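Lecture notes, unit on binding sites. The following record was shown on slide 14. It pairs a sequence with beta-D-galactopyranuronic acid.
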Amino acid sequence: MRSAALRRMTTVALAATLGLGLAACGGAGGAQESVTWRLAETHPGDYPTTKADEWFAEELKKRSDGRITVDVYPDAQLGEERDVLEQMQMGSVELNRTNANLVGEFVPSWKAFGIPYAFDSEEHFWNYLQGDGGKAKLEELSEMGVEGLTYYDSGARSLYTTGKPVEEPEDLAGRNIRVQPGSITAEVVEKLGGSATTMDFGEVYSSLETGVIDGAENNLPSYVSTRHYEVAQNLTLNEHQRVPEVLMIAQSAMDQLSEEDQKLVREVARESTEVQRELWREEVAESRKTLEKAGVTITELDDKQAFKDAVSDLRDRYAGQYGDFMDAVEAAKKQ
Ligand code: GTR
């Protein structure tokens, strides 16, 4: 991986020295006849995002008459999400489905997605994502040399722990909760009274099992697909964040296509969102059944106020820092 990355960097450096620029290899007019790209996915094959990636790949191949082949690599085969984002930056992986929380390390304005309790409901969240605010946010990804194609659902993130259930923020005292790299969730956890440990997704199961951490936070389908519920059997539906999934493509890959094929990629990606959202709804219901059957303690909160209060100053601080984001989020309430 390392030497491939270096080779890639050398090529880019050489192209820059020669004043060529990667777009010279393709782009409108000089488009390649056919391309085969890799799409990185951290989840297993039967997860809603992976199934949507596959739908995107099949549909794209069909509609481009075989000019565009996308091979999906599930199960983090191309690396953990943070590593894949680095590879995207260098253009050594062409496509990636990742969670918006991870992107904040590469495009700081994307940290805004981690602002706790920014969205009131699923409807509010999708109004934002599909409105002007969500579209503008995708464009910010050009800062890291990628194009944001579309969003996928990821529901709401909630806490889960080993030991005793969390019923109020005080129950987090002295407990170590895993958070995603690059996000502001570490600060959310600390404000709630716990300690936060940043860790790759793939390390969480064994860390829960061995007691390195006392809990983590995620949506229901991820809690189930990773089997974290087997080792951390208490789920608290505090729903501190709604953070979308995003499908992105390296700009250097997009530049290889004709304008017409670029449009096709964007169109098929947008359509794949509808496919994913449908699969997502089904998966959330299935996950709930799995958890109930497994005897997981699910703490429903009539009122999330104590959790909201604990993070309110953090929320205000970030709302000030990411004013444009919060304005667009506010506007999406009225739609
Ligand atoms: C999931 C998300 C993954 C990954 C994971 C995590 O909800 O779909 O892409 O970011 O959370 O917590 O690492």
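Take-home: The first strand starts at residue 35 and ends at 40.
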